[in-house]
Amino acid sequence: MTYVQSKSKQLTEAQSFVLVKNLLRTAMYTVSYIRGIFPQNCFADKKYQNICVKTLRPETPDCIRLLKWLENGVFDALAKKYLDEAIFMIQGVEDENYVECYKFKITYHENNGRRSESASTGVGFQFMHKLGKSKFRKIFDKEAIAGSVVSLLRRLIQLVQGLGNLPKKRKLTMHLLYRDEITPSFYEPTLFKSSGPDQMSSITDRLSEIRLGNVNTAFHQCEMQVESHEFGENENFP
Fold first, then answer.
1. Who has greater pLDDT, 237 or 169?
2. Cβ atoms 19, 29 nearer than 8 A
3. Closest CA to 226 of 157, 169, 173, 171
4. Are 54 and 46 contacting, i.e. CB atoms less than 8 angstroms apart?
5. 182-201 burial string, b = 16+ CB within 10 Å, else e?
6. Is pLDDT above 70 for 75?
7. Which of 112, 114, 122, 117 lies closest to 81, judged by CA?
8. Residue 146, SS3?
9. What 3-state class would DSSP assign to 41?
10. pLDDT at 32
């Protein structure tokens, strides 16, 4: 018997784009709240499914800067499909050391869910439905994808809440990595400037990583990874 899924239960490419944007926003705002990056009055509560997350208000120049990084930088590159990875970093001011790093790796799917490039799997959120005796078709269901977002955010919140105190004086840095095969050499979004690969490798070499998983739609995959000097090598997060 052939399985047919209602199109109303599937995300369109535009809806997938909005979902990834909201995931990035929510993750970065919630991390900023838990880590005390901005004053508490800069945040407002928001309900997503059955969990409470945070939104960021444009209350201070630093809040406005982060909002512009996202809206004018990250999301512009995402819309053009140039974005390969967005890296949100917390750095000590006095010693210039990076103490935490939040990475969001983006993969773009073509042809109803077939990957345009390889990506590692994390928390799996796609379904396989049978189409006859030996043929299977991958189905990306709205409800399942929403559940995957909630699961990923819960894991992020749990992990970040267990981290130690940050330096009293700290600053934020945002790095964007692009897909070299399609991104014009002259492309740099608003508020961003070019930096060399040696700078990124020297930063990440000092931190240990934990992979939290990914959210996968028929058009995008967003994989989340947290790096910190507090993690041991090859540490796993439940």
1. 169
2. no
3. 157
4. yes
5. ebeeeeebeebeeeeeeeee
6. yes
7. 117
8. helix
9. helix
10. 95
Residue 212, φ and ψ in degrees, nearest 5: -90, -25
Instruction: Output DSSP code: residue 64.
Output: H
pLDDT confidence of 191, banded at 50, 70, 90? confident
Alpha helices (runs of H) in the chain, residue ranges in sequence order: 13-34, 61-68, 75-79, 142-161, 197-204
pLDDT of residue 133: 39
Q: What is the dihedral of CA 26, 100, 89, 126, to 10 degrees?
A: -40
pTM to 2 decimals?
0.81
CA distance 141 to 127: 8
Task: Quote the CA–CA distance of 38 and 195 in Å, as a whole number.
Answer: 26
Between 65 and 201, the higher pLDDT residue: 65
- As a whole number, the mean pLDDT across the chain is 81
- Over its C-alpha atoms, the chain yields an Rg (Å, rounded) of 19
pLDDT at 120: 26
Euclidean distance between CA atoms 103 and 88, whole angstroms: 6
Q: How far is CA 219 from the centre of its chain?
A: 15
